[in-house]
User: Fold these one by one.
Assistant:
Number 1:
Amino acid sequence: MTFAAFPTLLPIPEAARKYGLAVERIQSLIENGRIKAAMVNKNLVVSEDDVRDEAAPLRKEDLPEYKMHSHLKGVGIGIKEASKKYSIGFSTIFRWYKKGLIGEVERAAVQGGEKILLDESDVAYCALIYRKIGGQGRRVFSENGLPYRAHT
């Protein structure tokens, strides 16, 4: 077991000072279950990751994993081509598209209908996170497109 798997815990006053939140706001977030807290040596401590997320919610576009594919922003790729290139099932990529995790660049007319061209930077990001988290049968993304982090 590695220590990286354990969350960093901070006393509430330190977390409030570090992230610019009022102590009362942090206490409210604890009561609402949005921030995990624990008692350590008779002191209430909170998860630094949770406080950071509440203080300045991240967007997937802010993540290094997303930025590393910025050169692909606006490049269109079909779902079938993306499935083949990134070795991820067609239905998985289509589901990410329907959920809004992958943007659409354009729709191109093809014989018998139209072809959806996805933003390849979104596809590459999703593929990377999918591989990091473990893939099939596991929740990979939160509602806002960030890598899913279980709140246990």
Number 2:
Amino acid sequence: MGTHNLNADNIIKFPNGLIGLSEQTQLQLFHETTQDEPVVHWLQSTADADFSMSVISPSTLGMEYEIEFTDDDLKSLQLDNPADALVLLVVYKQTDDNNNIKVVTTAPIIINAEKNLGLQKSLEETVFH
């Protein structure tokens, strides 16, 4: 994919970093400009051009999430209405013989798009609709 030009309007701040990657606190959300309705977006670190993740909307897979936010989650996201949250799932290619595509369904990324704040939430129990 290479390095993408940074656009300050698309930088999402993750005050607590990502799960297992606490140093990743600012990531730019973007998609290829050649697509009218992109399915895959990327989150690329602003500090490390070699770190990026592919993300998709759960609706791409016909899934909807019910996520219970803690007070700390809402404070971190500065989210007044949980319905305003954007939910994304990390997608990756498994490095086995089949190069299978996998989706992380138990640790969605939640973004307050108005305030460009995000968090990755580990779900003990996942409820899909």
Number 3:
Amino acid sequence: MASKKLGILFLVSVILAFLAGYYISVVIPSTPSESTNDTFDQITTSFRNFYYYDIDDVEVEAAFIASMKGIVESYAQANNDPYTRLVANPLSVAPSGDETFIGIGIVFVMEDLNLRISFVYVGSAAEDLLFPNDLIIGIMVDGQPLYFDTLNSEEEVLSYLKGSLDDTKTLIVVDPDQNEYQVTVTYIEIPTPTAYSVDLGEDDIVYIKITHFSGYIQDVTPGTAKVFSDLLNEIEASNLDINSTSKTLILDLRDNPGGSLSALHNNDNSAMIPGITQQLLTNNVEKPLFQMIPRSGEVSSFYGNLTSLKSYDIAVLVNGRSASASEVLAAALSINGGYQLYGYPTYGKGVYQNTLNLYEISNIRYSLVYTEGQWTYDDGKNVHEDPLDVNIIEQDGIRALEMPLYGGEVGFNEVSFELGNYQAFLNYFFDLSGVNELRTDGYFDLATQNAIEDFQLDQNLTVTGNLDRETAIKIHQIYMTDIQDLDKDVQLQTLIDLIKST
């Protein structure tokens, strides 16, 4: 099963996931055994024959990978295309499912061969051991420290971090105060459902959240269409089909970066489960749900499956991080289903990507993710030029705050960019407003010091009056707890009140 497959300790960075957006398939050519780039071969041969230094195979591989990256980045930058890129996936690691993965539960970005942590999953092995902005700089191997900056490539770094269920590794970490320490973590199975339902405690309102869209991969992941179908069937049987005209399904697409087309539509492939648009919308041959237009100009149209609309209402939540495939679904539900969108305007990503596998080098598969075309809705509209019509609902409270990111200890009369988010959190925590509200510009004044001392007293911390690591960790823990509490989601609760009032 997917949960038992080998995994790597991270999910793709949030930023990269956002850029991944909306793709349709993987095109796999025969994999070349060596470079077929004549210019590269000519340069390399010249270096081997005439260069003062010896050139080994590892250096040749590194140079070829760098040349691929350079080519891709050059074309992407020339066309102002942030979505086209070269990606690398270890072949020695069996793919993990999108609904779960085996690892320690962090998201990171590479920083000079080190790993800068950007997110730690709640309930993961890394929780309360590692924190955002910590830097993983090495790993203990046979009792000896191995520092990543002594290695040759990001791929080599990642090779030391591969792990399977119950593996234990000791990481070398530097915190933002520049303290180096070791953290021992055990690889566990971490659920990361692409779609899930939460009981809102309302008789007539049900809720499904879709985090992103994944396709079906045999023996690896069921795909979001299947996960959504199971959820929908269950809640329809237990709730929505009972006096359904007074019922509402809230479909939450906020912060959804997009994903696989097959989650939205199976393109009339009878071997695949119908996509989410087919599960929710009617088949109207005169009005497609959406269309895809590649460079050739050949239009592909996609239609619903139902003979009539659902008897219950659907309210769709979106925001500025709802992008690509989530915008496709939102557009189809709004235009073809007549369902209302709520929240904030969506990102506006009117293009889609495809993937081409290129080379396998040192047990790493390099693939090109490239922009293939645009998608349209409502008779040729592009969401980039024609934004979706969204009923604005303001967000407030914890969900309106950026996650505070500790950058090192800060004290009275100092200025810190990171401090502003902590000041905003303290305003939220103590419900400060008006003349009592703290400034949020990052200047550490007396009011900020008093608020931090009050927080340290309230949480039984050492009272220093400074924003120190202990205080930052406690704020992070409270932030992560509250951000998951739907009762503290002002946007969602406002929508619930709106539905109940009408």
